[in-house]
Write the structure tokens for this entry.
Amino acid sequence: MEGMKAESVAVRRDLQQIMKMLGKQVVQAEGSSDDSSVNDNRQRVGREVGDGGTDDRSDEQKSWRRRVELPSFDGAEPLSWLNRVERFFNIQKVSNDEEKVEIAYVSMEGSAAYWFTFWKEKARNRSWEGLKAAMINRFGGVFRGTVFERLATLRQTGTVEEFVRDFEVLMGQTRGIPDEQVLG
């Protein structure tokens, strides 16, 4: 029970730090242009047409483009989650490694959140790249080895549809493979 209380205190402390970081970004965004590095959602909370806000169509489109949810992670399909969270970081213009790690922590649920706490205490490389490598190592499941190793050993054991799905999942993780090599 004491361990859970300590864990709860640690989680609250981490969330407070993240909220401070996000608050600083909001303050910076209010002083900069529409192309700021902060999610416009924070500025739009509670702002609806008719409550004193503007009804400018271009503002609405810009906000819509940046309104992207941070995907949650429960330990399943780490490669898919990492791809989605990387897109989230690109859209939200998050480039600081420490910030990426802290934001990733907020999205973790269940056993993944407990694992993260353990990783953060024990890991030597606490960078975003270090976290990604550790997540793939820990939650990779049946997807062990490099993408190329898995492609080379991919075999049809079920339906053609399942094989094609597995192939597409692996190909989605590669860049720059010549068509001759893929089709050959």
Q: What stands out?
A: Residues 145-184 form one domain. The chain has ten helices and no strands. The CA atoms of residues 27 and 165 lie 44 Å apart.
